[in-house]
Design goal:
The protein is α/β, with parallel strands linked by helices. The protein has helices spanning about 1-20, 20-25, 85-90, 95-105, 145-150, 150-160, 200-215, 240-260, 275-285, 285-290, 310-320, 345-360, 400-410; strands spanning about 30-35, 40-50, 50-55, 65-75, 75-80, 115-120, 170-175, 220-225, 265-270, 295-300, 325-330, 360-370, 370-375, 390, 395-400, 420-425, 430-435, 440-450, 455-460, 465-470, 475-479. The strands form three sheets. A ten-stranded mixed sheet has the order 2-1-21-18-17-16-4-19-20-3. Helix 8 (about 240-260) links the parallel strand 8 (about 220-225) and strand 9. The longest helix is centred in the first third of the chain and has 19 residues, at about 1-20. It is globular, with a radius of gyration of 23 Å.
Length: about 475
């Protein structure tokens, strides 16, 4: 028996080593896939990458350096939000185009989405404000998700069917409790959750999980509150870091555990990168609170108050809390303009954020609406935005923006549970990140956001492949 065990362990170790080194075989036949504004190519296959000896680059050599021996966080997945708006637009698409849409995001030939986020109660991307209970029903006996059964749940289930079951990750976020639970008696325009309703509101999350899981939609996780520092014209609710900690420690966390939902991933913050470090260090300073939290969520809208994204705050937060995963929970290009849906800058916004986010420690990445109409809605407060896929309800056409393709250059080729590996560049306009898939494939993503075509060296362990990065392009190299 001992010999059998030893042989099995040895074979398993050998298989693991072979998988890790699989990419070295690809150095003879690496695949190159590119999306370029200049040539209007999308996921175009180019000549294979071929490597030659190149022991020491000079400072003047343009390079992307990759070292698969340095391994960092594992990928939970990439996906987008199925909001009321996305689901309502989807319902208006003819059946054949619905199939195309589902395949484009979740199918074998699509871009590999495995994460789905949705809203609990209404959000700005709903056609109206709603909750799942009658007013003043503290017992929650009237709780019913019938509203979601018309549009949202059918679309979530279509996505779920197309995703490999073991990879499916579904989570939800509230934008606001019912108005009668709040200090301003309004689901919109901020306000706070009244102390006397903390436990009722915690029970509400349990009801939501139960109802969705009755419908065979397994809940992976939840965020405590969407954008807890924003007083919005739409559904919103304010929590200080201390109040969020109190609710998690005394109500939400214990209630989840008491209901055998200890496995659900609770995500704190769920707002911009600007206050991320302060919020996390304050909310999770007490170990009795921290034990209930699995992840730290964030958005990219700090540019409303800054000139650029604050990626360093991700790295600082990740260093402080290495046991909590970082998850990008929402981002989109605001101020919709149909005439700009084919602008490459939309894709570059996504590429720049995704590459930097992953390089700073992010494990999961969730876009906002997966689908919107030709007006950037529907939206019950006029907050119209872009989405990777736009459906023109008048002409019955699906439009795939550069957002879709730039996201896809990572999500299509980097698989769940892939591990990020060491990557750097020596040019500020050349962005790159790399992952090792469980199969042993090495996936390198290179984005040129500059105005000039640039040749570069993909340098790995003393060997280099000379490749071309057209201006305003993104490419994926698979070894």
């Amino acid at each position: 028996m001992k010999k059998t065990i030893i042989v099995f362990v040895a074979l398993s170790f050998a298989a693991s080593i072979n998988a890790q080194n699989y990419w070295k075989k690809g150095m003879k036949e690496g695949r190159v896939i590119i999306t370029s504004q200049k040539t209007n190519e999308k996921f175009a296959k180019k000549a294979n990458a071929k490597f030659v000896d190149f022991p020491q680059p000079k400072e003047t050599d343009v390079c992307v350096f990759v070292d698969p021996d340095f391994k960092y966080q594992k990928l939970i997945g990439i996906g987008g939000a199925i909001t009321d708006a996305s689901a309502e637009v989807f319902a208006r698409i003819p059946k054949e185009k619905q199939k195309e849409f589902i395949e484009a995001y979740y199918g074998k030939s699509g871009i590999g989405y495995n994460i789905v986020r949705t809203n609990m109660n209404s959000c700005d991307f709903s056609s109206d404000s709603y909750t799942y209970i009658n007013d003043n029903d503290e017992s929650l006996k009237s709780f019913d998700v019938k509203h979601d059964e018309q549009y949202k749940i059918p679309l979530i289930k279509e996505a779920q069917k197309a995703i490999i079951p073991k990879d499916f990750r579904f989570y939800f976020s509230p934008w606001s409790p019912p108005a009668w639970m709040k200090s301003n008696n309004n689901m919109l325009k901020g306000g706070r959750l009244l102390d006397k309703y903390y436990q009722v509101w915690a029970n509400y999350y349990i009801k939501f999980i139960q109802e969705y899981e009755k419908r065979n939609i397994p809940v992976w996780g939840l965020t405590i509150q969407n954008e807890p520092m924003a007083v919005q014209t739409w559904e919103s609710c304010i929590y200080t870091a201390d109040k969020e900690a109190k609710f998690l420690k005394e109500n939400l966390g214990p209630t989840l555990w008491k209901n055998n939902y200890k496995d659900k991933k609770v995500i704190i913050w769920d707002h911009n990168r600007d206050l991320m470090y302060q919020r996390t260090t304050t909310t999770l300073q007490d170990p009795e609170t921290s034990k209930y939290a699995s992840g730290i969520g964030y958005h990219w809208y700090e540019t409303w108050n800054n000139k650029s994204q604050l990626f360093d705050n991700l790295a600082e937060t990740h260093r402080a809390f290495p046991d909590k995963f970082l998850i990008f929970t929402e981002g989109c290009k605001e101020q919709f303009d149909f005439s700009k849906i084919y602008d490459v800058s939309l894709g570059e916004l996504y590429g720049r954020n995704m590459i930097n986010d992953f390089n700073k420690g992010t494990s999961a990445w969730t876009d906002w609406n997966i689908l919107l109409d030709e007006k950037g809605g529907p939206n019950h407060v006029g907050n119209f935005c872009f989405a990777p896929i736009i459906y023109d309800t008048n002409k019955q056409e699906l439009h795939y923006t550069y957002e879709y393709y730039y996201i896809g250059h990572i999500s299509k080729y980097v698989k769940p549970n892939a591990q990020r590996v060491g990557t750097s560049t020596n040019k500020d306009f050349l962005l790159s990140t790399s992952f090792l898939n469980e199969s042993g494939e090495l996936v390198v993503v290179v984005m040129n956001e500059g105005d000039k075509d640039t040749d570069f060296n993909l340098w790995i362990e003393g060997k280099s492949s000379k490749l071309s990065a057209p201006a305003h392009s993104i490419q994926t190299i698979i070894l």
